[in-house]
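User: For a reading group we're discussing how well predicted structures match intuition. Take Thioredoxin domain-containing protein. Before you show the prediction, I'll give you the sequence so everyone sees exactly what went in.
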Amino acid sequence: MLCALVMFLGLIIAPTSAYPTGKVVEVTEVDFDAQVAKGPTLVDVYADWCGHCRQLAPVWEELAKELEGEVYVVKVNGPKCRSLQQRLHVKAYPSILYLRDGEMRSYDAAQRTVQALAAFARKGWRRTKPVPFYMAPNNWYGRSVGWVYKIPAIAREAHGNLRKAGWGDVSIIFATLAVPVAAGMFAIFVADVWVVRTTRAQGAAARRRDDARRLLREQQEALERMNRVHAD
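Assistant: Thanks. Here is the predicted 3D structure of Thioredoxin domain-containing protein, as structure tokens, for the group to look at:
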């Protein structure tokens, strides 16, 4: 039922267009995994009130142009995306992370120029040790954990989209509850059909076995009678 609810909420969220190259892409909990799956991604986790983050902002825009066609340049508003910030294990702003091939690396150098960051995104990341497997958000384990974090964000965005479409709170609650109920009823129907068919098939097989045994027994009895007649 939980999976059905997530699927329903995902369907009513407005689809996003393809991210343009050469531009910074801002992501949230909802579309982070889809973005990272596209290829090598450099992430800036920032806060609006952070002075260092404001200084990095124009550099980040230039970096996106520099890495056009090579690396996706992404930013995440940490205070607004708390669950995603937790997945990325961010403790300070700004935090610069490089995600590629199921691994995550942190950029800890003091230089935050376009040249230094571009060098790190292109080849420098190879000299940096990745975080432990269980901390990376872009491998199978991290994506699985991400679904737990993603559900509240999907629900919030779906609720906002439905409100914009003119739905009332009562209608939204009814629709949200109707999906798992309908999914549960469908699952019960499928299980019932499967059980009935299985039971019928087993019954037919048992009857065929009984008929075969009865026929064999009748043949044996007939053969025994013939043997007795010949013996007499």
